[in-house]
Fold these 2 entries.
Entry 1:
Amino acid sequence: MTRIPRIAAAMLALAAVAAASAQQSPAPKSSADGIAEYRAMLADGNPADLFVAKGEALWKTKRGPKNATLERCDLGKGPGVVKGAFVELPRYFADTGRVQDLESRLLSCGETLQGIAAAETAAAPFGKGEQANIEALVAYVASESAGMKFSLPQGRAEERTMYELGKRAFFYRAGSHGFACASCHGEPGKRIRLQELPDLTKNPGDGVGFAAWPAYRVSSGELWGMQRRLTDCFRQQRFPYPGFGSDVTIALGVYMGVNAKGAASTAPSIKR
Amino acid sequence: MTTTTTRAFMFMAAAAAAVAAIAGCAASTPAIDYDAATQQMMQRSFRDQGIAKVERLQQDEADAACSKALGAPLPDATRAAIEAANAKTIRMPADGRFIGDWKAGEALAQNGRGMTWTDASAAPSANGGNCYNCHQISKTEISYGTIGPSLYQYGKLRGVTDPAAPAARPVVEYTWGKLWNARASNACSGMPRFGDHQLLDETQLKNLMALLLDPKSPVNAQ
């Protein structure tokens, strides 16, 4: 728990830097530089570690109507194999007959192994009840692939189909504003206000875009998986509400994940 | 989730059947109509939330054509047809006056709210213009986006010294048209159709016009 004071110290340091630059500012540092500095200070003590610890404990704890652990969950590399699984998701699973991302796969394992109803978890609000457990599990599983490069399998027709559908969903313009994912993430070097936007039609680099999530968000104190990240993107896109684990979210995961081939995962990362 | 899962199974079964059917043919045509499958996927993946209803997924011809192009330019004929159709939607101000209050325009340009499922009302009065999200506008606001072109000195660079003068009329009408329906002059423009989609009302649009074209606006005066 030494991390919290470190974050507080980082905040104070940032405030001092901001105050100093406000007073002098001979050659003003760009806001983007300031934000980058802020992120660097935060990275020293990422509260995502707390979610990882909780997730690891959940993975190994007997729970649910079947009083079982998740240790036999197959994340794609065989039952119980966690290391390296995250950077190969979403992928096809024969037992469900679906292409699944990490979150939807955890729902399946929870239902099959522990008897925890997947539909109930999917319908729960983010950060509440079983969804809070999913966030911790997502942080744990992702942490076991930290530094590894994305390499989603595309050997099966189902996986290639999901890539094609994900590409079309990415460019799908509709709604009051006529926005698509591509409106913000279809070109390199663009910003909304000062927020830099990764180009998700290709590999945007290590720990950028798809390779940056799940992440701890300092502004809200929450751990967001890709499902929650996409849901809030759709909110800002002025779209209706995507179902948790719905096909459009999986297809977009396949599209972004395949495009990010070779990008090193920094998850669980830290965001402003 | 249960229905989503069931539908997903049905979709996969249909896709598998399509693959199997094609495998039986000598000539290999595409096994799956990806555009049709995408439409089905969109329809089964979303639900209503607040003011953001599933009917928003319905595309008009412009959005459908630009989506289908997957980021590539449209064929010339398609582009021209979309621009002509959208040009027909543009309505000039009822009282013939184009220029409002640039200060109200600046506040509107700063405001990025509106039309999400966390917004209570879809009325124009509840909406911002979102302008700074994508454009540089006045020089003093350094927190601006870069998806759209810079609009700093918009009127000045176009030689507008009096927006009410006849000489300024073409620029004034063009700018009103851009705000009303940007797809009229650029088929796949990323800019929302503020007038045509009733995101902003006439008074709000006039205030944005003033921000861009009034010589006293900081956009042109600084």
Note: Chain A touches chain B through 55 residues (CB under 8 Å).
Entry 2:
Amino acid sequence: MQDGLVAVVKQDCPTCVLTVPVLADLARTAGLTVYSQDDPAFPAEVAGRIYDGELDTSHRLGIEIVPTLIRFEAGREVDRTYGWDRAEWERVAGRTGLGADLPAMRPGCGAKNIEPGIIERLKIRHGETGLVARRVEIGGGEDEIEAMFDRGWSDGLPLVPPTEERVLRMLAGTARNPQEVVGLVPPDLVPATVEKIAINAVMAGCKPEYLPVVLAAVEAVLEEPFAMHGVLATTMYVGPVVVVNGPVRRQIGMNARGNALGQGNRANATIGRALQLVIRNIGGGRPQEVDRATIGNPGKYTYCFAEDEEGSCWEPLSVERGIAPGVSAVTVFAGYGLQGIVDQKSRDPESLARSFAESLKAVQNVKLAPACDALLVVVPEHERTFREAGWSKQRLLERLHQLTEIPGEDLMAGAKGIAEGGPPSLAGKTVAKYRPGGLMIVRAGGGAGMFSGIIAGWSASGPRGSSPVTKEVKP
Amino acid sequence: MTALLDPTSERSPTIRPRLARPDSIDGMTVGLLDISKPRGDVFLDRLDERLRARGIATKRYMKPTMTRPAPLALRQQIGTEVQLVIEGLAD
């Protein structure tokens, strides 16, 4: 920049319009150079105005508010002010008596070069993104969506192209450094940076404000107790199921009510999908390779929902698992599918608990116990029965553990005419279907319908395999 | 022309050639690795019997759980003690 005074303004800003007489005065008498961000004809009173339509000068000068007045001396910026403040302008301009007819002070307006959608393009053009991922050039005649399928990045559904601009916008959703390593993703045990996770979140269709939830979910599955390698590699059905608690659910518009586990909510759908894409693309975990699932389950596209805390008499899952009330958190559970529990007649808690228990006993196979952990999704019309009877979640869990104990005779191979089952030594014993702590309860679903559900887990539940992990969602 | 950011680990897979099959296992020590899957021991016990009947030395190992890769110390131990490893992968 040449020595002297520089002002950056836009016609769309009333404070800039207010200062036009001062700009004209300084241009005429003090060699002020005026850059206009949005209108080549503004300010008409300044003959030598420069149109900064591409906003490169504004970007280089780091303008955040217009009007901004800067003084350069010996090629360096020595003073700056923004908005209209007569005393400040007089100091920067080294003059007195500026804008005598104007009010003493008026706040400025946001500069055009920092508007969302523009700042990203400017950073890309000026090589300031800080993004280190390899750039994959897609030819002009190539279809981006097809190109991504061809490269094996997709879970089978179309992806949003992760352009630099979209990834930058995604990264604005977190305060974390893009190069921070969140963990090592199996099976390749590759460091997952915030940037790489953001790229996959873009492809999954996430909004930037979902990114902290995606990051927490990735962190959670990479904790040792979750055993993500085994969850991926097993021939069984499971994949990570993500339950979201706390204020973030409503802030990002997650669905905890009607069809909570189904389709149709962008946050629910894309957060779970982003997690799966991270495993696929960063970790290298793909079906029929290290993912050895025999039939898998549709939740391996995405399986994420929020708990309906507002209507519940029970404490949220995250609070039960040690997170402070009012703090956002995700809990990951190695689970699959949904087994319905239809009970439209039970009106007392004991009857309903028995209904739940009989269904829970069928998980995996009626002949197998102990089986796996399970996440019980209790709908509002069922929760009401427990609430009205004063049953805490703990009381229901204790009762379910009792009611899911099975006589060993029923579990022996051959019993009930089924070859599957345990050894004859089970005779005379009682076997718990669920290990202590192996049942979790969340409340979700619409207001009408006595249709709760069981999300069953992995045979290798608990310390020898996968345990649920809860992580706080951090900005 | 559009530039997309690579969502992968950007690794080029390294392909390591398999060790050549030995012409004979005479004089070798064979590791038998139980990955802690049910009935893996039944399979490995039988192999153990048959190998010993042929005069082949064996050593038994066990992963703490089949749900995680073998711990590094166990991998190193196997690598230093035997020339061949047999493991039972499924139930």
Note: The interface with chain A takes residues 1-11, 36, 64-69, 90 of chain B (CB under 8 Å).
